[in-house]
């Protein structure tokens, strides 16, 4: 109670001083003076309790006034690690401040290989004046050109020495790149069957369940929107590749590439049936087993049932 009376007397004294200096203080101004003193007192009480909020806020304000951390003051390894998280646009902006650090070849090399996993030029001796930053710009330009016209895009890469004129090299580039437009890529692969052959051989389906392997295949090589010769070609190539990757499983199940072809076609039709909103009467598991075994009689009923469950639970194989 004594402390409370002391605060009241102190506030009255401060108000009198303010009145003497200004001649007159409004009630609102007096209230502000009193509240500021109460706030100051609360800060002091918190400091006595072991948590000095006032000093914490003051320290935070001083850090904000200091601005961002200068990467040049850090060890080079730490600075490069921080900059490695930036994309190409942000790295270019960072080079305006930290020119030597942000233009380092290791950073741009990492950007190139994380976006375009394979290029023929990676395995060659770099020419005089070679720069990974310049290479990144060329790869980006070539990808945009490919997405507009695939033939022109591949020609651009070859003219810059980025890709060799080889179906295998082009297939590796496509397999390791995720910036290419899938519709344009589908058109290109339909015209370049030699590249398609090498692209299929890059897939490893060992010990994969058939529907999951088919999904992975169609993630890299997108299926056409309509049935036709190109879809049949894709399924045929996949069937042979799947059998080549799983010879023991094929012998155990008694499956041939032709039988895998039938199963793949059945899985695609089942995917459409179960996922399409236009199909009201969905195919049952019993119907799928009966229809599939009618086309491929050597396949066990349990194996076909597991195929149905996979599509029912996970979804379309060629979405």
UniProtKB/TrEMBL annotation:
May promote guanine-nucleotide exchange on an ARF. Promotes the activation of ARF through replacement of GDP with GTP. SMART domains: Sec7. This is F-box only protein 8. It comes from Rattus norvegicus. Coiled coil: none annotated. GO terms for biological process: regulation of ARF protein signal transduction; ubiquitin-dependent protein catabolic process. The lineage of its organism: Eukaryota, Metazoa, Chordata, Craniata, Vertebrata. Gene3D superfamilies: 1.10.220.20, 1.20.1280.50, Arf Nucleotide-binding Site Opener,domain 2. It comes from the Eukaryota. Residues 68-111 form the F-box domain. Residues 133-314 form the SEC7 domain. SUPFAM superfamilies: F-box domain, Sec7 domain. One of its GO terms (cellular component) is ubiquitin ligase complex. One of its GO terms (molecular function) is guanyl-nucleotide exchange factor activity. It holds the Pfam family F-box-like. Keywords: Guanine-nucleotide releasing factor.
């Amino acid at each position: 109670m004594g402390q409370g009376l002391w605060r009241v007397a102190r506030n009255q004294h401060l108000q009198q001083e303010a009145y003497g200096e200004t001649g007159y203080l409004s009630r609102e101004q007096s209230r502000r003076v009193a509240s500021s003193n109460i706030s100051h007192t609360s800060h002091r009480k918190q400091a006595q309790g072991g948590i000095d909020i006032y000093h914490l806020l003051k320290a935070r304000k001083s850090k904000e006034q200091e601005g961002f951390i200068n990467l040049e003051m850090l060890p080079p390894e730490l600075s490069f690690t921080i900059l490695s998280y930036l994309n190409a646009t942000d790295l270019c902006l960072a080079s305006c401040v930290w020119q030597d650090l942000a233009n380092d070849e290791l950073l741009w090399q990492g950007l190139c290989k994380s976006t375009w996993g394979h290029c023929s030029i990676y395995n060659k001796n770099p020419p005089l004046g070679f720069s990974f930053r310049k290479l990144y710009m060329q790869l980006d330009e070539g990808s945009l050109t490919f997405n507009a016209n695939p033939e022109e895009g591949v020609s651009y890469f070859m003219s810059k020495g980025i890709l060799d004129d080889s179906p295998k090299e082009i297939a590796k580039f496509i397999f390791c790149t995720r910036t290419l437009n899938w519709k344009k890529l589908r058109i290109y692969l339909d015209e370049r069957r030699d590249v398609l052959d090498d692209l299929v051989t890059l897939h490893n389906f060992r010990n994969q369940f058939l529907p999951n392997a088919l999904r992975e295949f169609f993630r890299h090589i997108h299926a056409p929107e309509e049935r036709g010769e190109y879809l049949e070609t894709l399924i045929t190539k996949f069937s042979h590749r799947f059998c080549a990757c799983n010879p023991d499983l094929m012998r155990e199940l008694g499956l041939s590439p032709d039988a895998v072809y039938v199963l793949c076609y059945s899985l695609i039709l089942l995917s459409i049936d179960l996922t399409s909103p236009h199909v009201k009467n969905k195919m049952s598991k019993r119907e799928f087993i009966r229809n599939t075994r009618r086309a491929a009689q050597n396949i066990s009923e349990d194996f076909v049932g597991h195929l149905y469950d996979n599509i029912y639970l996970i979804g379309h194989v060629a979405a």
